[in-house]
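Subject: Sanity check before I submit

Could someone independently write out the structure tokens for this chain? I want to compare against mine line by line before I put it in a report. The sequence has 333 residues.
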Amino acid sequence: MNLTTNYLGLELANPIVPSSSPLTRDIESLQQLEAAGAAAVVLPSLFEEQIEHEAMAVHSALDYGSEISAESIGGYFPEMDDYNTGAGDYLDKLRTAKETLTIPVIASLNGDSAGGWTLYARIIEDAGADALELNIYLIAADMNKAGPEVADEYLRLVERVREAVTIPLSVKVGPFFTSMAHMAGRLVEAGADGLVLFNRFYQPDIDLDTLTVGPNLVLSSSQELRLVLRWMAILHGRVNASLAATTGVHTSEDVLKLVLAGADVTMMASALLKHGPDHVTTVLDGVTRWLEERDYLSLDQARGSLSQASSPNPAAFERSNYMHALTEYSSKR
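---
Independent answer below. Compare away.
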């Protein structure tokens, strides 16, 4: 079975790409993922906060005591190369991954402003990344900022990073735009070569015993696939960009549904954290078996055949099927 696919201009052996997670953090697990059949990997994100915090720490250290010696300006300042600013460690891991793996390695930047992104985007490109994923984490909590202003912030960020690098650029976003379809088109116009649907924003929780607010990480389930499935089907064939699906991708059935809806690749994190790297092999075997049983010759032959444009029931992806779904559910009770 021919499972090859194209993502961001990269020819991949199949549509399974482990997304940014603890499993893509070290070389040993990356090698296990490649051996299990992963077609590419997305490294954990380099966070904007890391860049800012470490840069400030180095700046403070270099300035400490400089005012007490006239010789300090040209004398005892150490070279910046002697400092590990956090980003240096990330770049070392990127270089090692590129030297060790034969599959494409996609780097990731996570943040909500241009900040040091353009600089580090260039550095990441120089370190050998095959592509760059912008994991934009922008919560529109400012009551004085209208929706179009928020959208413009996204677009400016993509434009600036696109100007900084020549490697393929994907943008990982959430679904919370007034018009997701329109925004998808604008992101592509701003320079995105691909869209990753969707960013899974982790929500805080309140501990009633300690009366503290903190993060609450819950792994995804296949039930979360529906939102991605809907927008994948709507956008397929309507934006000139690669489409990646993430959040809720756990089984071969999940992968097949997304491919039929139009996905070029499907990204996994929670499923691999639950079941380990070998789960990639299990999913690929299931995808292959399903396609062979239905006499498909390739993955490409199936891709997009149930997108909104190709579906015999395109209204199922929009509101007009809403009442029918509720009525059907009630009649089953």
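---
OP: Matches mine. For the report I'm noting this point. The longest strand covers residues 105-111.
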